[in-house]
Amino acid sequence: MNDMKELAVITTKDVEDKLITLRNQKVLLDCDVAELYGVKTKEVNQAVRNNPKKFPYGYIFVLDKYEKAEVVKNFDRLNNLKYSTVEPTAFTQRGLYMLATIISSARATETTLAIVDTFVTVRELASTMEKLQVTEDGGTQQKKLLQHSGELMADVIGNKN
Prior knowledge:
Elements: H1 4-7, H2 12-16, E1 20-22, E2 25-29, H3 30-37, H4 41-50, E3 60-62, H5 65-74, E4 89-91, H6 93-102, H7 106-134, H8 140-157
Antiparallel strand pairs: 1-2, 2-4, 3-4
């Protein structure tokens, strides 16, 4: 317990705030994963380098220069990547699961649970929104779907009671 940040509870909102869409999928960049896990970015990347079999194609990918420029332009929190000579690594949901098997600490476990919960909630929200678009009854079913969508959104943005 080096500082108060290490004691902070990781919430779904903390994770959701860091999720970005690249290559048509939700990902977390290595620097954001490191921040959530309470470690340095180089420790995250070292864990990947030391365990290459745990990160096959589709689990992680390195951003190309165009993608890096776009995330720097669109996300103020990533401005420090602008001058980095290293291209960031993006972790897909599967890559994050694998990383969780390598980085083990109370903070990493707590963060992994929040990440899993966030991905599940986002997936469920997308599914509910798809169902809502094809539901034509305008009655009970549509109202239930709208209510469920609102509950999921409240969970994601941290307004859950």
